[in-house]
Amino acid sequence: MVLIRGVEIWFPFQPYPCQVRYMESVIEALNGNNNALLESPTGTGKTLSMLCSVLAWRETQENPPRVLFASRTHSQLAQVLKEVPPRLNVTVSVLSSREQYCVHPTVSKYTPEFQFQECARKIKESNCVYHRGFKNAARPDSKQQHPSSDIEDFVNSCQSAGVCPYYTARKQALTSDLVLLPYNYLTDMNLRSRYHGIIKNSIVIFDEAHNIASFCEAGFSFLLPLTALDNYKQQSDQDGEELCEFLSEVADGGEGMLFRSIGDVNLPSEAPEGQLGEFLRNVLWVVEHKVQDRYHVMVADDNLTCVCLDPAVSLRTLSDICGRSILVTSGTISPLSSLVKELGVEFKVVLQNGHVIGRDQLAVQILSEGSDGEVLDASYKNRSTPAYLNSLGTTLINYFRVTPGSLLVFFPSYTVLSTARDHWHSGTVWQSLAKHKKLLVEPRAKDQLPETIEQFRAADTALFAVCRGKLSEGIDLPDVSSVIVIGIPFSYIGDELVKLKMEFLTKCGLSG
Q: What is the DSSP letter of 43?
């Protein structure tokens, strides 16, 4: 046991000083019902430190609040579930999508967007044996009700019991001490409204939160396919005519009038269903909360799109709902000052932690020239030239030859990776690289990723991957001796959304 700020915290071993500092910051935030921004490098045990300290503090409360632990991917949540110490004796549930939980023999094979529609249809027709089993189940057995260490076991347990894992998880989350869930359950404006009862009066933890701002913006952006508007025009009567005319005018060059004039439109007496209904509810929400100036309305790819440019729109309203501490943590969230301004909520507790390893255990080098003297300029104008690719390939051959063990090579994008690989295949570079390491390339298809990871665990392997790709976070690769990052994965300056964001930050005095 470790005593920190009056709270006895069970920890599986003697904590490092950086872990003690981390847990002190967590307890400080919870004691004051304040938000915290906690940076601690990868490998410092921040997930375990967070779980042990938050759950220990929770047990000291007369009315212990629910803890919501959000991470970006399903694989990250599966890892977190395995890190929950059984000794803490808390009930745990995991919220996830139908893509992960559906066990219906046909619906489970659909793409996510069709899964939702087919699931709703089968439930309406009472045509899903697992949903009927869920409704009829008096009390699921304890193993099924609270998965202790493995999501797959939970799914199999539900399937064996003839109940739907998706709806079982939703029900058990209402009574669980700790709920693990993906970001979008908290950052998506439509999903959040469905889980209001779970979020209210809960401590919220965002793990691996270096992209929290972009998740908040994406979650509060919304769109209307123009085909959905056309379908409504054909099906609606005179009652919906004024709404159709208004939205058609907005889509035909009048984007600026959407939020400004929606209040003057006589809306149909019966609210539209489907995509149009959801779009309309979101528009009215923006107007009601007076955040129109945080949005940009545009028509792109046959969609009327409302782009949220301010993550504070999402995070402030989340803070209002949960009413307790929001703990934001990651290995890399610096510079903290600009992130605090952008997120728009007060963080009274801020930590920038050191590492558990010493400087003598880590070597960081910047290579500006190849082994042939060529400047390794990975800028857009130069990264596809034969001279650069040849020099980069020769440099990697030399590096592979003298570096023991397995390594990762990260490229800025799939396009850059494919260009380099194709060029090296056309000559002798790829063949020379393969003499020193077994070569693997990050697959674009998600279902091929587990096999690639399993192959990578073999000795002396080089895996070519992509920054911000499937392998860039949330996957444990313990035997990597070296990581090579080629270029810097800047956002594409010509992207319309990047331009809009830069203009918004400049207007708000947050640029630079």
A: T
